[in-house]
Amino acid sequence: MKRFLLFLALAAAAGAVAAQSWPSRPLRLVVPYAPGGPIDVSARLLAARLQEPLGQPVVVENRPGAGGNIGVDLIAKGPADGYNLVMSAIATLAINPSLYPSLPYDPLKDLRHVALLVQVPNVLIVANDLPAKNVQELIALARQRPGKLDFGSGSTGSTGHLAGEMFKMMTGTYMVHIPYKGSAPALADMMAGRIDLMFDNLASSLPSIKAGKVRALATTARTRSNFLPELPTLDEAGLKGFDMTTWWGVSVAAKTPQAVVDRLSAEIQKAMDAPDMKERLHGMGSEPPAIRTPEQFTAFVAAELKTYTELVKRSGAKAD
Amino acid sequence: MEGIVHNLGIGFVEVFKLQAVTMAGITMTLPFNIIMCLIGVLLGTLIGVLPGIGPVATIAMLLPVTFSLSPVAALIMLAGIYYGAQYGGSTTAILVNLPGESSSVVTCLDGYQMARQGRAGPALATAALGSFFAGCVSTLIVAMFAPPLAEVALKFGPAEYFSLMVLGLVSAVVLAHGSLIKAIAMVILGLLLGLVGTDVNSGVLRFAFGISELADGIGFVTVAMGMFGICEIIGNLEQKEHREVFTSKVGRLMPSKEDFRRMIGPVMRGTALGSALGILPGGGALLASFGAYTLEKKISKYSHEFGKGAIEGVAAPESANNAGAQTSFIPLLTLGIPSNAVMALMIGAMMIQGIAPGPQVMTERPQLFWGMIASMWVGNLMLVVLNLPLIGMWIKLLTVPYRILFPSILIFMAVGVFSISNQPFDCFLMSLFGLLGYVCVKLGCEPAPLILGFILGPLMEENLRRAMLLSRGDPFVFVSPSKPISLGFLIASAILLVIIALPALRAKREEAFAAEDT
Amino acid sequence: MKIKSPQDFWAGLMFIAFGVFFLVVAQLNYQMGTAVRMGPGYFPTVLGGILAVLGAIVLVGSLTVEGPPVAQLHFRPLIFILISSLAFAYLLKPLGLLLAGMALVFISAYGGHEFKWKEVAILSVVLVIFSVLVFVKALVLPFPICPDFIEVCPIR
C-alpha cells in the first residue's frame, strides 16, 4: 500500500513536471473525418486560436474512416503526453460503441475528455405540403398513416436517425427511415416533397427554415434554441424527457497527466470565450455550452453513452 | 434584361472595387477582391497540377485564413481555387495521363494521346479555350437562370438520378475503343470495386475484410493515380526502344485552323451539356464531361480518331466540366445545398463568416452573390491569360528526359495520395491498383470504363434502393409517366445501347460471313 | 482445344475470378433482401454474376476467335515502381520526408533503363527539397521531415 502511494505521488510529481514544460513542441489535433465538415472547420478554428497562448503550433491532421473511430482510436492508443488530441463527438463517444459490433477503444476508459466545444440541437422539420402544423398534428398524422411517412437522415446511426427512432418509440408510431449520405441531399428531397420529415442538425437546416423551404415544428434539446425561440422543444410538446443534441469536443488519451488536462481545458475555454470565436461558432448554430470543465464533460459523456446504448439497442439500428 | 445588367454591374463593381488594405503596417488602396481572385486561381492551378492533392483539402486548410477576410473576398478566393483546380487538373490529364479531378478522367483519353503525338500544345490550348468559353457562357447562365434552374434541380429525385446514372454507364461503354464485351466487363468490375465500404442504405460494411481503412470505401484519387498514373509510368518504362524523351516531337503551340474548325461544335455542345448537368447535386459535372465525350464520339465524322488523339475528345469534356463547375454553384447560392464536397466547404466558410447560405443571400446580400458571379468570369479570364503562355513552359517540360521526369511525377503522386488520410494504406492501395491496371492493359482491357463504373456504381445503387424504399417496392416507379425525366433517361439509355450494339453486331456478322467464305 | 487468343483467355479468367469472388463474398456475408427491398448483398451478387458470365463469354470467345497474345510482361519496371511507392509510404513516418523521398527516387529510378548514380542522387535531393518547400512549408501538410531517431530536426 505504501509503495502504491509512493508511486502515485511520484506519478503526480512527474505529471506536474511534465506540465511545467508542456508544451515544448507542436501539438497534433486529429480530426477523424475528411476535411471540410463542421467538426473539421471548428477544429481548425480552435487550432489557430490556441497557437498563441500555448506558444506552440497546433497541427490539424485528418484521419478519416469508420465514422470517426479510426482517428479516435489512434489517440486513445497513442502516447498520453498531452501532445496528441482528438476531436471526439457524440458519434464516436456515445453512439458507435453500441452501433458497431466491436469498437477498438472504450470511450470512458481509454480517453480523457477535456472540453466540449459545440452543442447543437436538432430540429424537427417537415415538408411544406405535409398537413401537420405542430407536433401533435404530426403524431396524429403518423398514427393515421402507419408506415406511410418517410423520415430522412444523414446516415444510419446519426443523431438525425436516432432522434427519429426515439420519436417513434415515444409516440408509438411507425415511420420509414430513409438514410442519405449527409443531410444536404436529404434536405433537397424534403424540399421537393419526396420525404416528409427530418430531425436535422440546426446548422444545416436553418437556412432552409428561414427561407420557408421547409417548416420547423420543434427542437430536440431540453431548452429552446435562441436561433428559433418561437419553436417549442419536443419535451414541451409532449414527449417528456426528450433531450438530444449533436455535440463534439476535444479528448486526449486516458493517462494524460492531470495538470496537462487542466491547462488544456483552461486554454480551450479561454479560446472559446474570445468574441470572434464565439461569433464563428455561433455561425455554425452553436451556443456556448454550459459544460466547462473536464469533469462535467466526462460526466456528460457517460450519461450520453448510457442513453444511446439503450436507444440503439431498442431501435435495432446497426452498422456492421 | 436590364435587371441582369444592373445586377452584373453590382457584381463587377464589387469585384473591382478599391479597398484600403493594411499590410505590415502600410495602408494601401488596392482592388483587394481581384487580388484574392488571382491568388485563388493561382493556388487552384497549382493544386490541380499536383496529382493527388485536391481543392477540398486545400480549401479546408485555408479556411482559417479566410477569417480575417471579408466574406466577398474569402468566397471569391475559395471559388477561384475550385475552378483553378479544374484547369490544373486538365493540364496533368493531358501531359501525364493523371486526372486531377474525377471530371478530368475523360480528358486523359485523347488529351494524353495528343501529347504523345507531339500535339500537347494544341491539346492544352483547346482545353484552356474551351474551358474559357464554357466558363463565360455558364456564368451568364448562372446570372440569368439561377433560381429556375435550381427548381429544375429539385425535380431530380432518386429515380431520376438512377436513370441518369444508367445512361451514364451505357455511355461509359462508348468510351472504350476495343472489345465491347471487355469494356462492359470493366465497367462492371469498376461498379463492384466502388461498392467496397459502408452501404448507405443499410449501414453494413461491405468487402472490407476487417480493414478499417476501407470502411469509407476506396477513394477515387487512389484508384485514378494507380490505374492511370502508375500504370502509365510502368508502361512507358517498358518501351524497349527506350525513348529518351517522352516525345521527341514538340509540335506547334497553338491549334491549327483545322483544329479550331473542329473544336467549335464540341465546345458548344459540351458547354450546353455541362451547364445542364452541373446543377445536379452529386456527380453532375463528371457525367457532363463524359456525356459530352460520348456524344461527340457518336456524332463526329472523325469518331475513329477518338481514343487516339481526336481534338474533339479534349474540347468537349473540358468545356463540359468547366461549365459544370460553374453551374454547380447554383444549388449552393440559391438553395443553400451543396452539390459536392467543395460546395459543402463553401457553406462552412459562409457560416463562419456569419452568412446563412440559402435563397435569401441573393436578396439580402446582392454584393456577395453578384460579386461571386462576376468573379467567376474574371477568374476564368485570368486562368486563360495565365494558362496559354504557360503552354510553352509545359511543352518544354515534356522534353525533359523521361528518366528524370518519371521519379518527379511519382513523388508528387505518392505525397498526394499519402496526404489523403496521412496513412501508408492509401499508397498501398494505389500500388495495388497500379498492378491491376498493368494486368488489365496487358490483357487488352481498358482502365477508363472501370473508373467510370467505380464512380457511378455506388451512386446508382444508392439511388436505386432509395427510390425503391420511397416507392415501397414498386419497381415501375422508374418508368412511370409521373416521372417523365426518369422515363426519358431510360429510353435514351436503351436507344444508346442499341446504337452501340449495332456496329458490334454488324462486325460480328461480317466476321462470321468472312469466316464462312474462307 | 486450342487457345486462339491468349489475351482474351486470361482476360476472361480474370473476369470470372473477380465475378465469382464478389458473388461468393456477398452471398456468404450480406443479406440479399428481396428485389423490392434490396439488402446489401443484392447488387454485388447480381453484378458479380453478370461479370462472371461476361468473363465466360470472353473465355469461350478466346477459344474460337483469333486474337493477340498477352503483351510481354516486364518485371523490372513493374516491381521497382510499385516498391518505390510502397517504400515511400511506409518509410515516411519513421524516416521522415527527406529519407523516404530519396528512397522513392532511387528505387524508382532503378526501375528505369538508365541509372546513373550521380544523376539520380542530384535529382533526389532536388525533388526532396522541392517537396519540403511545397508540401510542408506552403501547403502545411503534416509530414515529418527528419527521421524519428533524430531528436531535434534542424529543418522545421
Q: Which oligomerization state do the chains in this entry correspond to?
A: heterotrimer
CATH topology label of the largest domain in chain A: D-Maltodextrin-Binding Protein, domain 2
N-to-C series of helices and strands of chain B: HEEHHHHHHHEEHHHHHHHHHHHH
**Structural domain count of chain A:** 2
Overall structural domain count of chain B: 1
Quick synopsis:
The complex is a heterotrimer of chains A (320), B (518) and C (156). Chain A is of the alpha/beta class and 320 residues long.
Describe this structure in words.
Chain A is of the alpha/beta class and 320 residues long. Chain A folds into two domains: 180 residues, Bordetella uptake gene, domain 1 (D-Maltodextrin-Binding Protein, domain 2); 99 residues, Periplasmic binding protein-like II (D-Maltodextrin-Binding Protein, domain 2), CATH 3.40.190. In chain A, helix 1 runs parallel beside helix 9 and helix 6 crosses helix 11. In chain B, helix 6 runs parallel beside helix 12, helix 8 packs across helix 19 and helix 9 crosses helix 18. In chain B, 64% of the residues are buried. Chain C folds into two domains: 59 residues; 64 residues, no CATH class. The longest helix of chain C has 36 residues. The chains are: A alpha/beta (320), B mainly alpha (518), C mainly alpha (156). Chains in contact: A-B, A-C, B-C.
Fill in the keyword field for this structure.
heterotrimer; A: 320 residues; D-Maltodextrin-Binding Protein, domain 2; nine-stranded mixed beta sheet; 11 helices; elongated; C: 156 residues; mainly alpha; 2 domains; flat
Task: Summarize the SSE layout with pairings.
The complex is a heterotrimer of chains A (320), B (518) and C (156).
Chain A: H1 2-21, E1 27-31, H2 38-54, E2 58-62, H3 69-76, E3 84-89, H4 90-99, E4 111-127, H5 135-144, E5 150-153, H6 159-171, E6 176-179, H7 183-191, E7 197-201, H8 202-210, E8 214-219, E9 245-253, H9 258-273, H10 275-283, H11 294-315
Parallel strand pairs in A: 1-2, 1-3, 5-6, 5-7
Antiparallel strand pairs in A: 3-9, 4-7, 4-8, 4-9
Helix pairs in contact in A: 1-9, 2-9, 4-11, 6-11
Chain B: H1 2-16, E1 19-23, E2 26-30, H2 32-49, H3 55-66, H4 71-96, H5 105-116, H6 120-154, H7 158-175, H8 180-194, E3 197-198, E4 205-206, H9 220-238, H10 257-278, H11 284-299, H12 312-327, H13 329-335, H14 341-352, H15 360-364, H16 366-398, H17 402-418, H18 424-442, H19 447-470, H20 484-517
Antiparallel strand pairs in B: 1-2, 3-4
Helix pairs in contact in B: 1-16, 2-4, 2-16, 3-4, 3-14, 4-5, 4-6, 4-12, 4-14, 4-16, 5-6, 5-12, 6-10, 6-12, 6-13, 6-16, 7-8, 7-11, 7-19, 7-20, 8-19, 9-17, 9-18, 9-19, 10-11, 10-12, 11-12
Chain C: H1 6-29, H2 42-64, H3 75-110, H4 117-138
